[in-house]
Specification:
By secondary structure, this protein is an alpha+beta fold. It is built from twelve helices and six strands. A hairpin with a 4-residue loop joins strand 4 and strand 5.
Length: about 300
Amino acid sequence: MVRSQFLLHIGRRWLSSSPNWNAASIRQLRDLTGAPVMECKKALERCDGKLDAALGLLSSYAETVMRKKAQRSTRSGLIALEVAPDQRCGAMVEIRSETDFVHQLPVVQRVSQRGLELLLRGAVTNVQELLEALRDELREAVAKTDENLTVHRGIRLQVPDTFRDGRIYSYLHNHARVGVLVACSAPSPLGRQVAMHIAAMNPQYVSAADIEPSVYESLMPAEDEAFRAPRQLGAANASPPQRRSVKFEAFIAERCLLDQVLVTDSADERSRSRQRTVREAIGPGISVLAFERFAL
């Protein structure tokens, strides 16, 4: 609303002295709205050269363009992230576009930065609220890029208050195509390396205690009835079962972050007889609380 009022104010100042329009008027209107040249010309003709009226007309045009382009496939885009100065909170947003070069344009960068700002402040709590809050920015970006743009997802990761020394670490990889936020219970010199590891290995769980009971059962032998007893894995004192199948051991080594071999170790460290897991690398007294990974 504030942006629209500002544009109307500027438009009135530019064309209040003359009701006629020319090439400069078209250029000014195009700079303000991002609409095609012919659409700007038609709007000025219909409004007798009055920029404020033409701006209102092109606003409805932009809404129509957004609805038409909404059916187009968006397989490219960018991932943007930001961590608060105190490292207690982080935000990540995924913007989808039709082609892979559009995300480099300033108008699209403004959409992602505005989304991160809203998420960090806690002004939005889900994707629908984020889309509604970014509606004006998205409309401008669609008009200027002539592509379908949308906010695919966004998250806010915060360290719980019970962990006073907790920190958020981040990593952006492969030209903003993979992004990671990870929360640790205390400052760690390996925090960024853990985020890089998550980007490369794509774990599904922090530890075996986070695996759903149905997944546990599918990984154990059918005759192991003792294992199939009811369990409360979501509780704070939950722990993985003592009896594990070979299939289960392989699963947690592949899917659980703390049990994966740290890929960011140097070549000398990887050549040791026993490679370090993420749990061993971060050391005692520090735990990974949660992580989020976005990938295009």
